[in-house]
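step: validate -> pass
step: tokenize input -> pass
step: predict -> running
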Amino acid sequence: MSISASDVIAIAPAAFGIASVITIGWVSTMWLRMRHGYPLENSWGKPMLPHGGGETIERVKLLSQESAQLRAELGSVKDRLAVLERIATDKGSRLAAEIDSLGAKSPTSIN
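step: predict -> pass
step: emit ->
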């Protein structure tokens, strides 16, 4: 059973199409993995880690510190917002009474 030249010519476009689809699928999968930070694997299934060295570690530390600072700042902004909401929704007489009581407690108030 031999394959003739006409058989090869008939099968070639289909084989080229299948190979192209497989290659495009592999490239797009690798691109998506890199884009979303998943570890890449070599042909034996072992992870290929990027060799960023100490620069990557320092960058992670700086980003962690910045994240902690931003969380602390967000907490203080939430507290301020709660005070402003309370002031805006309280009745005027209650707010005036609280302000007067604060003024009466301060030792430097002028009467």
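step: describe -> The two ends are 115 Å apart (CA to CA).
step: cleanup -> pass
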